[in-house]
Amino acid sequence: MTERPTILIVDDEAPIRRSLQRLFAREHYRVLEAAGGQEALKIADTDAVDLIISDYVMPGGNGLDLLTTMKKRHPRVVRMIMTGKADLQTVITAINEGHVYRFILKPWDNDDLCLSVRLALEQATLLSENRRLVGRLQEQEEVLRGLAKRYPGITSVERDAEGAIVLDDPDEAAA
Amino acid sequence: MSTVPRNSPIWFSPSISTLGFIRRMAIAFGLLVFIPLLVLIYVYMASSEISFPTILFSTAITSLVGFYVVWEIVKRVLTLAQDVRRFIPATATAQQDEGGVLQQSFSHLIQQMQSTMAELEAKARLLEETERKLGEATVYSAQVISSIADYVIVTDSHMRVRKINPAVQTQLGYGVDELKDRPVETVLRGTAGGEVLMNQEEMAQLTRAGTLWGKSGMLRSRDGEGIPVQMNLSLVRGAGGDLSGIVIVARDVRETLRLVADLQQAKTNLEERVHQRTQQIEQAMQERERAYQELTRKDDQLVRQEKMASLGQLAAGVAHEINNPIGFVSSNLQMLQRYLADLTSYVTRTGPLMEKLCGGANTEALRPEAEEVAGWVKHVELDQTLVDAGESVVESIDGLHRVKKIVSALREFSHADQDEPASADLNEGLESTINIVWNELKYKVTLHREYGDLPKVNCYPHQLNQVFMNLLVNAAHAIPDKGEIWVKTWADRDRVYVDVRDSGAGIPEANLSKIFDPFFTTKPVGQGTGLGLSIVYGIVERHGGTIHVESRVGEGTTFHLSVPLQPVLKAAA
Fold first, then answer.
1. Which of A110, B149, B316, B367 is most buried (most C-beta within 10 Å)?
2. Which helix (H) or strand (E) covers residue B210, if one does?
3. Shortest Cα distance from A19 to chain B (angstroms)?
4. B28-43: per-residue pLDDT in tens?
5. In Å, how far is B286's CA from the nearest CA of chain A?
6. With contact defined as beta carbons under 8 Å apart, do B218 and B226 qualify?
7. Among the CATH numbers 3.30.565.10, 3.40.50.10860, 3.40.640.10, 3.30.70.270, which is that of B418-564?
8. SS3 B428
9. Is residue A106 less than 8 Å (CB to CB) from chain B?
10. The whole model's pTM is what?
11. CB B316 to CB A59 under 8 A?
C-alpha cells in the first residue's frame, strides 16, 4: 500500500477522539474524526476510509447500528468497536451482527490497539492483494486458453525419459 | 199554622195582662147581653103563650148559666195559655193574647212533636244499625274465636268451663258439651304434675290487674296427652262489675319448645365451634406473628438487596462513565511516555552540543552536529510532540477530575447505610446524584434544572440522595426513546419542596395507588425488584416528609416531594 491508510474515529467524547488521533497520527496513519454515526457515514461516503473505530454507546444511535450500515455500504472498511460497558451479550451481538473485526474495551492499551489496527489493515491489504492477484490469474488463464486454441499444444511441455524437454521438430514431423 | 205575623206593627201596645182583661170583659159582656136577648127574641117569636116573667126568668137563668159556662171556659183557656206559655220562648209570645199564644203554642208543640218524632225515628234507625252491627260483631267475634288456632276456654266465676272454641274440640278431642260445667282443671293445669291452674300469687295478680299474661301451663287432651302451653288469662266482669268468668287463651308451645331446644343445641354447638375457631385463630395469629417477624427480617434483607441491586445497576453505568475518562487518560499517559522518550532523546542529543558551545567551541565546527540534531527534530516532529504533550496533560487532568467526581459521589452512596443526620443543601445532593446517574440520562434525556434558594435541611443526606436517584432513574426508565426531565426545588418557611417531572410514558390510573407498595413493578421479571419506590416512601416518611405522584398516560409523571426543615428524624432502617 503506497499511501497512508485512513482511520475514522467515531466517539461522542472529544478527549477520546483526540487521544486516539494523537496515537494514530504518530503511527503515520491519516486520522479522521466523527462525533456520531451520521457524521461518520457522511465521511465514509465521500472519503476513502480503511478502518473505522466506533464507540458503542452514543447519542443518536449506537455504534453497532453504524457498523452494520457501514458493512452494507462499504464492506471493505475494517470495523472495530470500542466500549467501556461490556457484557458478553453485547460482544456476541457486535460480532454476529456488525461483523466487527475487533472488540476493544475501554480503557485500552495503546500498543495493543496499534497492533490490532496494524494487523487488521495488513489482513485487509492481503485480502485485497489476494483478490487482485486472483483476478490477474484469471485474466492470464483466459489469455492462455485463447493461445491454446490457436496453437494447440503450445501451452504444454513434453519431456523424454531423462527429463529433457522435447522440442517439436517441424522437419522431423514432416519426415 | 200561625197566621199572625209576629213582628207586625201594632198601634196600641198595652201590657199583655191589660189587653187580656179588656178582651175578657168584652167577651163576657157580649155573652151576658146578646145571647139572652137573642134567646128571648127567639122564644118570644116562637111562642107567645109564654108569660113574660117566665121568659125573663128563664132568660136570666140562661144568662147566668151562659156566664158561668163562659167564665169556666175562659178560666180554663187562660190557665192553659198560662201553662203553654211556660214551654215556648217568651219572645215568641210577648205581644200576643192568649188566643195567639195558644195558637202559637200549639203550632210550636206540633213542631216539637214532629222534631221529637224525627229524632226518635233517627234513634230507632241508629239502634237498628247498632243492633245489626252488634250482631255482625258477635258473629265476627265468634268467627274469629272459631278460627283461632290457639285454645280458647271461657269459665264462669267458679272456674267451671262454660265455652270452648273449636280448636279445643278438634285438637284435644273433646265433644262440644263434654267439658261444660266441669272444673277447668279437667283440661288445663298450671304444671304437668300440678293440681291447680293458678297458685295464690297468680290468682292475686289476675284479680288485681284483670289479666295474667304469659303464664305457662299444661293442657290435657282427651287421650291424656299433656300439651305444654303458654296462656293469657283475662277476667270477664258483668255489668255490675262483679266477676262473671275468665277467658283463657292458650297456645301450644311444643314447636316453640322444640325450637328453643334446637337453638340451645345450636348455641352449644356454636360455642364449641367458636371456642375451637378461637384456638385456631390464636394459633394462626401466633404463626402469623412468627411469619411476620421472619418477613420483617426478609424484608430488611430485600431492602438491602434492592439497594445492592440498584447499586449494581448503577455500577454498570458508572463503569461506562469511569471507563471513558480512564480510557483516554491512560492512553494519554502512554503517549506522554513516548513524548518523554522523544524529549529525553532530544536532551541527550543537544546536551553535548550545548556543552561544546558553552566551552567556547567554534560554532561553524558544530554546525554539522547541530544540523543532524535539527534533522532528527524535524523527522520525529518534535514540535508536534510538544503540542500533543500539552493537550494530553490538559485533557488527562480533566478526565481525572471527572473520575474523581464520580467516585466521590459513589462513595457517598455506598455509605448511605451509615448515614448520620446532618444539615444538608438538597440542591447539592441532587447535583451529586445527577452525576452518578448521568450515564442513565445523558443519551436520552434533556435535563432541566430549576433550583431555588434552599435553606439547609436537617436530614439523612445520603438517604435523600437515594430518593433522588430512584426518582431520576425511574424518570429515565419511563422515557422510551428521548425526552425531558425537569428537576425543580423551592422552599417556604418550614418546608423544602422537590419536584421531579418527566415527559415519559406515564402511569395508568389503576397503578397509581400501588406504586409505593413493596414488590409492585411493571418491569419485566428480573428487571425490577419493585422496592425502589417503597424505599423512597420509607425514607421520606422517616423524614416526616410527603411524597405523592401525579401522572397522565402518554404525557408524563411528576413526583412531588416535600421535607420539613427540622424533621423529627426517625431511626434509619
1. A110
2. none
3. 6
4. 766 677 777 777 777 7
5. 48
6. yes
7. 3.30.565.10
8. helix
9. yes
10. 0.47
11. no
